[in-house]
Amino acid sequence: MREEFDALFCNLISAMAKSSKQRTLSVYLYIPNIVGYIRIVLNCIAFALCFSNRRLFSILYFVSFVCDGLDGWFARKFNQVSTFGAVLDMVTDSTACPLAILSQFYSPGLVFLFLLALDIASHWLQMYR
């Protein structure tokens, strides 16, 4: 009787472990990645309006900048760290768009394009170190 109970208990624990493995959250739905998706939307709207509404552009860009700090905090707080999230964070770091826009408005545009190349190279090196 005791052996049957132990076998039943082991089967129950095994079934619970399998069901908990099936319930793991997809990396695409991690909280920090959702913040990254929100940043992408904010930046798209901001840069669509950058020439017509500078104030709204500044506000949306600032909110996106604040969210850049939040996604890392959420990743550590909820232990939702992933390679996908790291790449998404680098892609949504929106220094590239302002540098490209600034290179069109100011006479030493090559300075901004150099900074853009430096930004891209540093992110690339950070990922592959």
Describe the structure.
With 129 residues, the chain is mostly helical. It has one domain. It is built from 6 helices and no strands. α5 (96-105) runs antiparallel to α6. The mean pLDDT is 78. One of its GO terms (molecular function) is CDP-diacylglycerol-inositol 3-phosphatidyltransferase activity. One of its GO terms (biological process) is phosphatidylinositol biosynthetic process. Belongs to the CDP-alcohol phosphatidyltransferase class-I family.
Question: What characteristics describe this protein?
Answer:
elongated; mainly alpha; 129 residues
- Globular, elongated, flat, extended or rod-shaped: what is the shape? elongated
Relative helix content: over 70%
Characterize the biggest β-sheet: none
Rounded to the nearest angstrom, the radius of gyration is: 23 Å
Give the total of domains: 1
**DSSP summary, beta strand count:** 0
Number of helices: 6
Structural class: mainly alpha
Rounded to the nearest angstrom, the distance between the terminal CA atoms is 58 Å
Percent strand equals under 5%
- The low-pLDDT segments are none
Transmembrane segments: 27-49, 56-75, 105-125
InterPro entries: CDP-OH_P_trans (IPR000462), CDP-OH_PTrfase_TM_dom (IPR043130), CDP_ALCOHOL_P_TRANSF_CS (IPR048254)
Membrane topology: Multi-pass membrane protein
Main location: membrane
